[in-house]
Amino acid sequence: MAKRDYYEVLGVDRNVSDGDLKKAYRRIAMKLHPDRNPGDTAAEEQFKEANEAYEVLSDGEKRQVYDQFGHDGLDPNSGAGRGAGGFGDIFGDVFGDIFGGGRGGGRSGPARGSDLRYNMSLSLEQAVNGDSVEIRIPVLAGCDDCDGSGAKPGTSASTCPDCNGAGQVRVSQGFFSLQQTCPRCRGRGEIIADPCNTCGGAGRVEKRKTLSVKVPAGVDVGDRIRLSGEGEAGPNGGPAGDLYVQIDVQAHPIFQRDGRHLNCEVPISFADAALGGELDVPTLDGRVKLKVPAETQTGKVFRLRGKGVTQVRGSGVGDLLCRVIVETPVKLTDEQRQLLQDLKKSLESNSKHSPRGKSWFDGVKSFFDELKS
Known about the structure:
Blueprint: H1 6-10, H2 18-32, H3 41-57, H4 60-69, H5 87-99, E1 116-122, H6 124-129, E2 131-142, E3 158-159, E4 168-173, E5 176-181, E6 190-191, E7 204-215, E8 224-227, E9 243-249, E10 256-258, E11 261-269, H7 270-275, E12 277-283, E13 286-292, E14 301-304, E15 320-327, H8 334-348, H9 355-372
Parallel strand pairs: 1-9, 11-15
Antiparallel strand pairs: 2-7, 3-6, 4-5, 8-9, 10-11, 12-13, 14-15
Helix pairs in contact: 2-3
């Protein structure tokens, strides 16, 4: 039976790139792998066919010969040959990242430590003005007694006899072989016969350390402060990761933040709203005077420029927006109640005192008149 074209076997064009060729082979090999198709001889044959095709097309010289002469050019008698590369080498190269190794794999050297996250809760004043805050965090740090080696002071690690220091071993599975992390030394290439008493051979111990975090002025909810090298110490003497401080801002009893602006509600009396006056308004910098003109209605917003927030990113200072709320008096005395009754009669005598009320009632009357017609 004539062999199928290798490009057809892998389902790719003749000008396929090395990367796309590898992806195509990987997709087919995963689908037809004998472990996924136990007892399926047809799938096993297709698997071998795909392996053979990739072995040739992934090799630049063999691919050039095949493109020029076809299958005949790879006949051992023709001098082109099939090469010495075995299936295990190809499988390890393509699937090394899945099964723990491959060509070019080696012992596990120093690795970077994990990044850590710390949630910091700040008051609005701290977030707006900035602060320096001390925190205590648990962290895996390098062992001081063994200097991170994991070996008892005065001793050292020895070469792993199973992998001879390579960190990986080759194991056979059926008709192919795999390269995987050495189970004895776990990829380090070394074993510790006499571990450190303090860290038990891990090279790292859990500690609690105190750090001073400089909070810049203007931070907001969700902002992160990065402390480089303050995360966990890396295994095998690797560099430490980073610590990310996640900012949360507590609710404030007076102000609400909206980006670079602050908002607050200012209750005023009915008399101050009608006659006008001057109010003391709190800001994060202290009290300021707010002039309220006569005939001010509830919901009116007054802007105090420059009394907001300077953002971490950006320029300029925001404003404080004060929303006036006219407060209805409560627990009136008989005298106060009578005064209000007299004022009510006086106001009702002329609609100009309540322009919005008059227009609203006129609109209601017009609405019902239209319903009747």
